[in-house]
Amino acid sequence: MTDAPPADDASPLGDSIADPRALIESWKEPADETSSLKLHRPRWQKRLTQEQLLTAPLKSLVLFLALPSLAEQMLIFLVGTVDMLLAGHLSGEGASRVATEAVGIAAYVGWLATMLFAAVGAGTTALVSRAMGAGDERFANQVANRSLVLSAITGLAMFGLLWTAAPVLASALDLTGEARQITINYLRLDAVGLIFASISLAGSAAMRGCGDMRTPMWILGGVNVINAILSPMCVYGTGPLPEMGVVGIVIGTMIARIAGGLAVVWCLAVGTSGLKLKSSELRATGDIAQRILSIGLPAAADGLIMWIGHFTFLRIVRESGEASLAAHFIGIRIEALTYLPAVAWGAATATLVGQSLGAKRPDRARQAANVALMQMVGVGLMLTVVYLAAAGPIFRAMSNDPEVCRLGAPALRMLALFQVPLTVAIVVLNTLRGAGETRFPMWVTLIGGFGIRLPLAWFCGIVLEGGLIGAWIGMCGDMLFRAVVLFARYLHGGWMHKSI
């Protein structure tokens, strides 16, 4: 994977940066894209045509692609939120706090798994979208087949790793007694579901690359329904099921993830998105598999670096007490209301960027990213107001522990001020990944996590005894740094000339 330099030494946006008026013009939609948007399609049509993806006005097109992905992301959010609510309202002295810790740690581990699964997903989206933009459906289909096999291998490797490492992770957070054993059991059962989550993520990435954002949404809808019904039944022992307590939460989630993975395989087997599984193409070797991993491995390394930083960050938060850790997990779950829409808009942007670059239209790729950024800044501002105004009621709805609510509400109000940088960082990150640029974000994550987040969190949270708010100052500093540096890279424009 190489960088093809621009035609001259100047940035592709060099004149725009030098001339403010030109910069403003570069953020407007091109005049030749003002034709009527033809996004209506028959119900049987699962994805937009290449003509629609490459000619429709971008303001409407970004929304059209992002909204199904947003529904998908919110359904993912609801799966975790149902689990957190069940944990936060278990009866018994200290039961809700112990359960919240177990669910929260499992959420962090699941987050690590999904970021490592990006080794397949990021490469799949970039290659499928470019191939479809260039009109090469055969190559796109080959990529989808290879990615499914690679994802199954990755999921099995993650299962083996988590089954072995569960006691180590519990010890790393100084959990003892019942809390330790509950966490170990929870992580091991969750690891089973992650095998199928890996397959689901890779298959969904392939579907999104060819413009089908709706099928992954419906599959995640089914996963959410299964989890929302089955987890409470397992927790409280409804019907023939015995009462399982906190273990019932993960049983429901595991079964839901298995169903989601099988549904993705079925959709690819019957070709609902224009991609179809073929036994002759189901292998994890050859040049195509190497190209998927050459793009995806830096993205996975990015995720691994971020996760190590976040897990170390958890130890800093834990120093302030169990209530701070529980409040942290709930606060991060709440912030998903910002994070997940940004990921949805980022997924839409990655598809449009890859398709546009495949069709040799870098200006349209840039315009698509501009539109997504402006739309998500608006969402970030809106949620800033919501978090500032409703931090207290939100925490009281999520936990019956008064100390958790007392610590969490003011920290959430501070975090509210950094929602716009968060949305900018996520959309730009997905823009770069859609173009196949994955190494630069990896270095930004390394510097931000270990050079800013952890030192600042330790100093403000431990040395100055700032508790949860002090630790979150480090988190907010990291978010601001990544937003500024990634946006500068975006403005430079070299990603528009990336060869993959």
Model description:
- This protein is 79% helix and 1% strand.
- The protein has a two-stranded antiparallel sheet.
- The N terminus is likely disordered.
Element layout with pairings:
Layout (H helix, E strand, L loop, with lengths): L1 E2 L10 H5 L1 H7 L23 H6 L2 H31 L6 H39 L3 H36 L4 H33 L4 H23 L9 H25 L16 H32 L3 H37 L3 H37 L3 H15 L2 H16 L4 H25 L3 H26 L5 E2 L1
Antiparallel strand pairs: 1-2
Radius of gyration: 22 Å
Spatial separation of the terminal alpha carbons: 5 Å
The overall pLDDT average reads 80
Portion in helices: over 70%
Percentage of β-strand residues? under 5%
The best one-word shape is globular
Low-confidence stretches: 1-45
Q: Which strand order spans the largest sheet, edge to edge or round the barrel?
A: 1-2
Q: How many runs of DSSP E, i.e. beta strands?
A: 2
One letter per element, helices H and strands E, the order comes to EHHHHHHHHHHHHHHHHE
Q: Work out the helix count.
A: 16
Overall SS class: mainly alpha
Instruction: Please summarize the sheet with the most strands.
Output: 2 strands, antiparallel
Features:
2 strands, 500 residues, mainly alpha, two-stranded antiparallel ribbon, 79% helix
Can you give me a brief rundown of this structure?
By secondary structure, the protein is mainly alpha-helical. About 80% of the residues lie in helices and about 0% in strands. The protein has a two-stranded antiparallel ribbon with strand order 1-2.
